[in-house]
Every structure is written in C-alpha cells, then in structure tokens.
Amino acid sequence: MVGSACSDDDGIDEEPVINIGTTGPGTCMEFGDDVGAHVTELPVVECSVPHTHEIYAVVLSQEPVYPGFESLEIAALARCLAPFEDYVGVSVFDSTLFYSWLVPTLTSWDKEDDREIVCVIGNGNGAPLVGSVRGSNL
Q1: What does pLDDT average to in each consecutive run of 10 residues of the chain (138 residues)?
Q2: Structural domain harbouring 114
Q3: Can you give the three-state secondary structure of the chain, one letter per residue?
Q4: How far does Cα 57 stand from its chain's mean position?
Q5: Is residue 33 part of a domain?
Q6: Per-residue CA distances from 116 to 81, 101, 104 (Å)
Q7: Domain-embedded: residue 98
Q8: φ, ψ for residue 98 (rounded to 5)?
Q9: What is the reported pLDDT for 12?
C-alpha cells in the first residue's frame, strides 16, 4: 500500500511496501504523534480500544501508469467522499468526523502492483474514537 523511504546498512535507499491483505473497512488503527508522510505498517488495534482512525473504504486507482502523488491525492479526495456517507450514515459535511486516505507510492505501484487508496475516518475534534463509527451518524 504505502511505503516509506529508509536506508539499509549498505546506504541504499529502499521503500518498504505495506500489503493491507484482508485488512479493510471496519479496521481500526492507532497512529502516534510521530507518524510521517510515509507509513510503513498499519498500526491495527481492536476497535474497542481508543484509536485515531478507522478504514471505511478501499478503492482502486483506475490509472494505467503511476500518476504521481498529487494526482493520487486528488483522486482520493473525490473517491473517498461518497463511501463516507454510506459507511457512517451521514454526509461528511454534516459529520463531526473527518476523512483522509493513504495512497500508493511509486515503489509499491511498480513492485507490488499496488493500486489501493485506503480511505480512513478520524474524529474531527482530535479525540480518540472508541468503537466503530459504522452506521453511527456522527
């Protein structure tokens, strides 16, 4: 899914790739304050414990070649909008929640055939979520 640049012992830069596998809508995650622009693993937790985000949709990019980060961001903004209301039960514009996304990197696109845009929900006031927001009308 999304990779992060790092350097191995030989000084060669690599981007580890996240494979979300069967992880999908309804999966809760706890991202710490130190999360950067690149995510190397999904910090999955039980939804019953406080968490920062919940996956509500996984959509595929329709681009035949890697379109670039900015293009994927624009696609995610649009493609994650409609599933929000289907999942939460209220429009994002009437919700106390916000939506965001994780997009493929060039490395994951090329090496892993990654086309997944992962749409995630968080609490608009920054407070942790407890329990799933599916059907919550928040």
Answers
A1: 30 41 80 62 86 94 92 94 96 95 89 90 94 95
A2: 6-123
A3: CCCCCEECCCCCEECCCCCCCCCCCCCEECCCCCCCCCCCCCCEECCCCCECEEEEEEEECCCCCCCCHHHHHHHHHHHCHHHHHHHHCCCHHHCCEEEEEECCCHHHHHHHCCCEEEEEEEECCCCCECCCCCCCCC
A4: 9
A5: yes
A6: 15, 10, 7
A7: yes
A8: -125, 165
A9: 34
How much is the pTM?
Answer: 0.79
Work out how many domains the chain is built from and give that number.
1
Q: Determine, yes or no, domain membership for 73.
A: yes
Which residue in the block uniquely carries the two structure tokens 């968490």? 51
What pLDDT is attached to residue 37? 55
Q: Answer yes or no: is 55 within a domain.
A: yes
Q: What does the block give as tokens for 11?
A: 């000084």
Instruction: Kindly state the tokens that stand for 51.
Output: 């968490």
Sign of the C-alpha dihedral computed for residues 90, 92, 94 and 97 taken in this order: positive
Question: In this predicted structure, what is the pLDDT of residue 1?
Answer: 34
